[in-house]
Amino acid sequence: MPALRHHERRDPPMEASLSRRGAFRISFLGRKLANAGRAFGRLPRPSFNALAALFLGSTALYGMVLGGHTTGVIDNVSQPLGFSIDKVDVSGNAETSEIDVLQALWSTGAQSLPSLDVDAARQTLEAMPWIQSASVAKTYPDRVTISLVEKHPFAVWQKGGELLVIDREGREIMPYLPNRFASLPFVVGPGANEDAAEFLDAMDVLPELRARVRAYVRVGDRRWDLRLENGLTVRLPEDGAVEAAAELTRMDKETGLLSRDIAGVDMRVADRVIVRLTPDALKRRDAAVKERDKLIKRSQKEKPA
Predict the structure, then answer these.
(1) Is the peptide bond before 141 cis (omega within 30 degrees of 0)?
(2) pLDDT band at 242 (very low <50, low <70, confident <90, very high)
(3) What is the mean pLDDT of residues 55-78?
(4) Model-level pTM?
(5) Mind listing the pLDDT tens digit for each residue in 71-105?
C-alpha cells in the first residue's frame, strides 16, 4: 500500500512537468515570432521615388509589348553585349539570291540573336516564290544559319490568260520566262496543273510521241488532248489514255498517219479511229470524189447496150 500511495503522489508532478515543457516551447516560439516581426518592422521602407520608378517601369514594359517595340528594345540591350547578327550562312538556294534571303531576314525587324524569332523568319522565307521549306537556327554570339529547299520547275501552265511555271504538285512558282523555261512541257486548262505530273510520267513510255507534243490540254478536268507541233489534235479517251496513245503511235509507224494532211484524230471510241481532215484536204477529197463519180458515170455510158 505505501508503494501505491507513493506512485499516486508522483503522478501529478510528472503531468505538471510536461505541461511546463509545452508551455516553455510555446513561449519560445512566440518570442521568435515577435522578434521576427520587430526585425521586419525595422527594415527600411521603399521610398516614393523607388515605388514610382517601379510603377513607371512596369507601365513602360507593358506599353512596349502592346506597341510592338520589344524587338528594338532587346536589340538595344543585346548589340552592345556582342549579340548582333553579323554572320548569315545560306545553303540550298539556286533560284533564290542571297540578297533576297537577307532582305527577308531583315524584314522581321531583328538585329540581334536574342530578338530574332526563328519561326517568324522561317515563315517569311517560305512565303518567297521559289522556297518550299526553310529552317533557321541561331549560333551564339552572332551567327544565323539558314537552310533552304527550293521548288523544282516541272511545267508551264496556261491559266486563263496567264503563263505560270509550276512544280510537280501543281503549285505556282513564278510567271513564265521564255528564255529560261521554253523546254518545259506546256499544259493547258483548269486542273491541268494538278494532274500533269501523273499523266506526263505515264507518257514517258512513248518518247517519240512526247517529242512531237506541243501542248497537253486538260478537257473538262476529265481527259487529255494532245496538240502536236504540226497543229494536229489527238483526242484521247478518259480511261486508257496512254494505251490509246500507244495504239496511235503504232499506226503512225505503219501508215505515217500523223504526217498526213489531217486536222485531228479522235481516239475516244474504243473500236474505231476517227480522222478529221483539214479544210484544204477536205476540198481536195471532195474534188477527188467528184472526179471519181464523173469517171464512174462516163464508164457506165460507154458500156455497150
Answers:
(1) yes
(2) very high
(3) 55
(4) 0.66
(5) 777 878 777 888 899 999 999 999 999 999 999 99
In the block, residue with C-alpha cell 480522222: 275
Interatomic CA distance for residues 94 and 109, integer angstroms: 25
- Nearest Cα residue to 224 out of 245, 252, 246: 245
Task: Provide the phi-psi class of 109: left if phi over 0, else alpha when psi is between -120 and 50, else beta.
Answer: left
Specify the amino acid at residue 292.
R
pLDDT of residue 235: 97
Could you give the CA distance from residue 57 to residue 255 in angstroms, rounded to a whole number?
Answer: 90
pLDDT value for 179: 87
3-class secondary-structure state, position 88: strand
DSSP 204-236: GG-HHHHTTEEEEEEETTTEEEEEETTS-EEE-
Quick one: cell of 129? 516564290
Residue corresponding to grid cell 477529197: 285
- CA distances in angstroms from 241 to 225, 234, 274, listed in the order given: 10, 11, 16
Interval 167-171 mean pLDDT: 95
First to last CA, the chain: 177
Q: Alpha-carbon distance 54 to 47, whole Å?
A: 11
Q: Decide: 189 and 155 in contact? Cβ < 8 Å.
A: no
Packed helices 48-67 and 70-78: angle between N→C axes, nearest 10 degrees:
120
What whole-number distance in Å separates Cα of residue 97 and Cα of residue 223? Answer: 39
> Does residue 4 surpass a pLDDT of 80?
no
DSSP codes joined into one string, 172-197: EEEE--HHHHTTS-EEESTTHHHHHH
Name 197's Cβ contacts closer than 8 Å, sequence gap at least 6: 154, 155, 168, 169, 170
